[in-house]
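We emphasize that the prediction below concerns an isolated chain of 528 residues; any contacts that depend on oligomerization or on bound cofactors are therefore not represented. The input was used exactly as deposited, without trimming of termini.
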Amino acid sequence: MTATRTTGEALVELLEAWEVDTVFGVPGVHNVELYRGLQRARLRHLLPRHEQAAGFMADGFARASGRPAACFVITGPGLTNIATALGQAFSDSVPLLVIATVLERAELGLGRGRLHEIARQREVAAPLAGLAETALRPEALPELVARAMAGFRRGRPRPAYIEIPLDLLAAPASGDWRPVALPGPPRPAAAQLREAAALLARASRPAIVLGGGAIGLGDLALELVARLAAPVVTTVAAKGLIPSDHPLHLGASLASPAVQAWLRDRDLLLVLGSELAETDLWCDRLAVAGRMIRVDLDSARLADPRYPADVAVCADARAFVSELLPLLPETARSEDVVALREAARGEGGELAARHRRVLDAVRRATPPGTVFTSDMTQIAYTANAVFPVPAPRRWLHPVGFGTLGWALPAAIGAALARPATPVVAIVGDYGFQYSLAELATAVELELPLVVLLWDNAALGQIRDEMQGRAMQPLATRLRNPDFPALARAMGANAAGPRSLEELEAALADALAAGGVHLLHLREEDFRG
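Result of the prediction step, given as a token string:
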């Protein structure tokens, strides 16, 4: 790169060199110099209606593809708007790179009431990112971007935040900015592999727990289950790693009381890439009576006193399994978990049963490889446990941070990441209104996208929580707009199926037709 390029232009070219191909962002007076670089770049830029949605789109893109996406935001409100998306990506270990501007270097921290000013802006981002840094000179940017990429590729992929002072963006950039070689993921120690293999060989009732950190296992996941002949349960983040109909698979059912009771009886748990968090279990702690082998990229999680491991391996899950398999003997044990799987599927009462009937119709109407994004809504909670998907990165849900309004923009990101794959967003009537403006974005982009809107005219989960605590529900009912009319006003297609048969037909037709479709499902029509 020559000195005739500005720092903003050089940064865009550097991102291209790192093979970042998609940027989501909103141009403003404080970041136009970044857009000077985009005008000549091969990078694809997507304009959302809101910076929060830009972050959610990048999140969906990264989850669906396994590749990082970038966001460009302005000083002050650009950061605070995208902060929720940063928190979601941090909680769910998503590689998201946010490039923000900040006041000129001479103004940093002075609080003089400048446009968009936050006196200590980086401190807003710091708790929400694995890396949060300010570039105080142009030549710092290649190192900061490399550190972000190293975090994505080698460690637990937290989001990264880099802010650039306004006077730096237009300054000339000299030197040869290029990617650097990064180390591969950490591998397990030979002694730990032997110790783990010995424990597994002696176990009579082992079980495997696969979390989001194991999503790169691919076929090795099936080889591990076959070699150990051990039942396996996944977190929501790992849905699809094991086919739903596998005879030893209990599904993404860690939150099931029946499965939790069964896990207590195991004499050994092999936990790969899961922190066993509250949002995986929906209880404070999983009771573990037997021994435990834990494999995780995050050493802090291995130090969790709630789950002391007999073997704690700080390594990449794929590297661990690939080196463990040759050490494992063939196993003759057999175990039937079909009845337990069906018992877990049947939990949740009549509301969950209603959800299952709708979800079964959705599954019948969609190709097996469809990517689904889901919001924080009751039907999605049921689907997390029971909806079958044939491969990883096909069921995307905001598990840890649990923000509303995620599914629609995340579906846009997923559709951009997988342009040949059908994408369906499952949203609730309240959460949909957090980001419904992005329906117009999907129409502008001419994406093949179906939105399934589950409408119970309430904050249903909160209503039920209040009633469960003997409270009179307060602030849980709302007057909804005419959703189909609103969708049509934005240029989308809309329909309101009123039965399972109509839903199945409407969904199949929408996917066949292409374009953006809203299917408005009123809960009252699917009772009984």
